[in-house]
Automatic annotation (TrEMBL):
MF terms (GO), sorted A to Z: inositol bisphosphate phosphatase activity; phosphatidylinositol-3,4,5-trisphosphate 5-phosphatase activity; phosphatidylinositol-4,5-bisphosphate 5-phosphatase activity
Protein's GO biological process: negative regulation of glycogen biosynthetic process; negative regulation of insulin receptor signaling pathway; negative regulation of phosphatidylinositol 3-kinase/protein kinase B signal transduction; phosphatidylinositol dephosphorylation
Residue span, Inositol polyphosphate-related phosphatase domain: 21-352
Gene Ontology CC annotation, any one: ruffle
Protein known as: Inositol polyphosphate-related phosphatase domain-containing protein
Family from the record: Belongs to the inositol 1,4,5-trisphosphate 5-phosphatase type II family.
Lineage, top ranks: Eukaryota, Metazoa, Chordata, Craniata, Vertebrata
Organism name: Anabas testudineus (Climbing perch)
Length: 487
């Protein structure tokens, strides 16, 4: 059924094609209720689908933040991040950005081919929990330029309980108003061309009784509940909410389930006075919405010239989005929430199509000789003495997952206006070799701006002749040149 919906969407895209490029975005939001990750996320990420996404965005809420776990997560990637990274890296995706605030986690992945065109990456957070200090509620966001188009992804966990619908809206508006970025084109969330707002928004179904709600769910007559969904109700009177679109809620409410089951809340709760409390009524607490910036939506501090410039850019480089799928996944039972999946097509005209830097290895590479990297700036960019080039194995997980790196300015050996050479010491190259790529990281732009074609690093002939095992060569090779690493 999901595949049929996606095929129909592809047909409609072909009919409405405006000459731009199309990109597939797969989004997930899931309140994981402090549970450990499942063993497999194949169905969550639609890994068996014939159409692979260009981008993955995963927003989690209530990730375990016990003191020992939280401290260790700052030293190592948390188990949830590790799971998604290890699952997606072999398929050619790297984690471009992530941000965590207490139990809120946002992960942004991209196919490697798009990475040099994802720039100005920034992430921030806003607390709205107890007195605004505790991070159990609030929002985390990632801001970036995708082929020149400013996008923002906002993962929220808003106030709980039936009677706090207005407070949820207030929290959302506070997050929208207070999150800012160091970016002239999009200093606030509302300035972005496209915003995705998602997470455990905690809006409930009010007025209808438990029996009626469960009856509608059993009969799959979800539309009978929409008029009393608090988010849909609040959109009728809140201007900011009206600017956000959402697909139809044609799937079962995703909260609240008994753990390890598909049964809606059946437990009896004890109140402070010892009386039995009510069971939680099912609700669509977990949502994905989006907002294309209205043409007339320009900050008051922008002058007329900038307003005209923005309108001209919008016309010259159009951006459209369409939701192809909006559903829940009932397979996962480790939480009292079910995950929600949204698949989108972004159709846009690229503002640039060449990377800022082209780079490649020179000659044969091995741990027997110092190696040379050649790179050429293809366009002007703000270079820095803190720029570096990293050597990565094919299938690396993130920008920090390098084998070794070299500072561009410190290790320069020759240059002219068009071609610059830098070297990497042979001691830094893994003796077992393997398939690798080179990535140029710009510290000013905070992103990778050039990636080489994959190339072969050969095994060290010296190490083979002398019968040296990797762990006896040096500490680096003990880590990066094991069989498991390259396999």
């Amino acid at each position: 059924m999901m595949e049929e919906k996606e095929e129909q969407s592809d047909l409609s895209l072909q009919k409405g094609n405006t000459g731009g490029d199309s990109f597939r975005l797969h989004m997930v939001t899931w309140n994981v209720a402090t549970a450990d990750p499942p063993d497999d996320v194949t169905s969550l990420l639609h890994l068996n689908s014939p159409k692979s996404p260009d981008l993955y965005v995963v927003g989690l809420q209530e990730v375990s933040s016990r003191p020992v776990r939280f401290v260790s997560d700052f030293v190592f990637e948390d188990p949830w991040s590790q799971l998604f990274m290890s699952t997606l890296a072999p398929r050619g995706y790297i984690k471009v950005s992530s941000i965590r605030m207490q139990g809120l986690l946002l992960l942004f992945f991209s196919k490697l081919e798009h990475v040099p065109f994802i720039r100005d990456i920034q992430a921030t957070y806003t607390r709205t929990g107890i007195f605004g200090y505790w991070g159990n509620k609030g929002g985390v966001s990632v801001h970036l330029s995708f082929y020149g188009h400013m996008l923002c992804f906002l993962n929220c966990h808003l106030a709980a309980h039936m009677n706090y619908a207005s407070e949820r809206v207030d929290e959302f508006e506070y997050i929208m108003d207070t999150q800012n970025f160091e970016c002239k084109k999009a200093p606030s969330i509302a300035d972005h061309r496209l915003v995705f707002w998602f997470g455990d928004l905690n809006f409930r179904i009010q007025d209808h009784g438990m029996h009626f709600v469960r009856s509608c769910i059993n009969d799959q007559k979800y539309e009978l509940l929409w008029s009393k969904d608090q988010l849909i109700m609040m959109k009728t009177k809140e201007q900011m909410l009206q600017e956000f679109e959402e697909g139809p809620l044609d799937f079962p409410p995703t909260y609240k389930f008994d753990l390890n089951s598909d049964t809606y809340d059946s437990r009896l709760y004890k109140t402070w006075l010892g009386f039995n409390g009510k069971k939680r009524k099912p609700a669509w607490t977990d949502r994905i919405l989006w907002r294309l910036r209205p043409k007339a939506s320009v900050s008051e501090d922008k002058n007329t010239l900038e307003k005209v410039k923005q309108l001209e850019e919008d016309e010259e480089y159009p951006l459209k989005t369409r939701q192809d799928l909006y559903t829940s996944n009932m397979e996962y039972k480790i939480s009292d929430h079910k995950p929600v999946i949204g698949i989108f097509t972004l159709e846009l005209r690229k503002m640039y199509e060449t990377p800022l830097v082209r780079l490649q290895p020179e000659g044969d590479w091995s741990a027997d000789i110092d190696s040379i990297i050649i790179y050429s700036p293809l366009q002007p960019f703000p270079s820095s003495s803190w720029d570096w080039i990293g050597l990565y194995k094919v299938g690396f997980t993130s920008v920090t997952d390098y084998i070794t790196y070299t500072w561009v300015k410190d290790d320069e050996v020759a240059f002219n206006e068009e071609i610059i050479q830098v070297y990497i010491s042979k001691e830094e190259i893994p003796v077992r070799g393997g398939e690798c790529v080179l990535c140029y990281y710009s510290s000013t732009l905070r992103c990778i701006i050039g990636i080489s074609e994959p190339f072969k690093v050969h095994e060290s002939k010296v190490a083979i002749e002398e019968g040296l095992l990797p762990e006896k060569v040096n500490g680096l090779n003990k880590t990066v040149a094991s069989e498991d690493f390259w396999n």
